Every structure is written in structure tokens, then in C-alpha cells.
Amino acid sequence: MSFLADTRAGYNAIAGDYVEMVKGELAPPVDRGLLTAFAEIVRAGGGAVADRADGRSAGRGPVVEVGCGPGRITAHLHGLGVDIFGIDLSPRMVAIARETYPGLWFEEGSMTALDLPDGGLAGLVSWYSLIHIPPEHRPGVLAEFHRVLAPGGHLLLAFQVGDEPVSYTEAFGHQVSLVFHRLSPDGIAGLLRRAGFTVSVQMLREQGEREKTPQACLLARKPA
């Protein structure tokens, strides 16, 4: 799929500059609060599964961040006691994440076809990564999220809110072809329900000082 190739190439090109831009930043306090709530919910046992076949202890079940980029959110959730690993489309981003957080596991992969077993995860985080998925592919991606989560597992999404996509042909002095889809919280909630999820939290906040649009976070659960 061409959008995957374009997204991979774009983030490979800007990886170093992107990391410098976000250095020392994580998320606004409200967003961090929802990350903390997600960590507490997962640690409490939503979607208990057996240990992973690759030898990493699952505890109450592993969690994956898809589209993890340089690993900031993965590392933050790990610090909150979550057994988590990261997957990203960009090999350069994965390399930076591995170098920055050598104690954590990061691998290459696409959210459109996760190389993970059915029902093996207690949680899945997509923190500003669904924004690169065109509308016609979103139902398939959410179905993939549903597939890899264990019954009772939790899904956390964050994204920019809006109606029109924004395209970039240049970023940080590099030629790219990146599309950022601004999404509707109600629309994504509807897609989640159609994919088999129960939506428990739908948070909308106004844009911050460095943000161009309102932002949304959704928390959903695969029924047990």
C-alpha cells in the first residue's frame, strides 16, 4: 500500500529532527492522566493472558504501542508498571527507540497487519498513529486491534480532531509525502463499536499552545 511506503519513508527521513523537537516533552497533564488511568486498568487485569511465546513475562498480559515512534509513550507506560513493547513502521524510529531505551523491546511492523497472535494482549495503545491511516483502511486496522487483544483487553487511542487531512511535502528540510488525517471522536467511536469494542471514555480537549486543532483520546474495551 503506497500510504505505508510514504509514511515509512517520511519518518525515516525526519526521525532525528523529530526526536530533537520532542525531546523532554511527553503529553499535556490531562493526556498523562488518561495514560495513568490506562496503566492502572491494564495492571488490574483487563485481558489476562498467558506468558508470551518469546519468553517475555506477560504478568496480567503484555501491552503494545503501535506507531511508537522514538518510544516516549512506551517508556512512560513502562515506568507506570505496564509490561509493554513498541512497534513502528519506520526502521529509523525503531533504531532510535532501541538506542534510547535499551531495556525495552521495539520491533518493526505495520498496524494494518500485526505480526501478533490472536487474543494475546491485555492492551494496545495507538498514540497519534491512527492519523496516518486513510479512511478506507481504518475499519480493517480497528479489526486488527480487536483481533490481537484478549477478551477484556483495553485500547487507548489519541488523535487530532478535524474534518480535513493535512499533507506535507517538506518537513525539517526533508522532502516527504506525509498525510495527517484529523479525525472525528464520534466517528472513531462508531467505528470502534462496529469493530466489536465497547467505548468507555471519549475525551475531547481544546488545542494547546503548540497545537493547531482540538485533541481527542478514546478508551475502549474488547468485551470479555
UniProtKB/TrEMBL annotation:
Regions crossing the membrane: none
Residues in Methyltransferase domain copies: 63-153
Pfam family name, one: Methyltransf_25
Protein's GO biological process: methylation
Keywords: Methyltransferase, Transferase
CDD domains cross-referenced by the UniProt entry: AdoMet_MTases
Gene3D superfamilies: Vaccinia Virus protein VP39
Record keyword Transferase present: yes
MF terms (GO), sorted A to Z: methyltransferase activity
Alphabetized InterPro entries for the sequence: Methyltransf_25, Methyltransf_Superfamily, SAM-dependent_MTases_sf
Identification of the protein by name: Methyltransferase
Native organism: Sphaerisporangium melleum
Lineage: Bacteria, Bacillati, Actinomycetota, Actinomycetes, Streptosporangiales
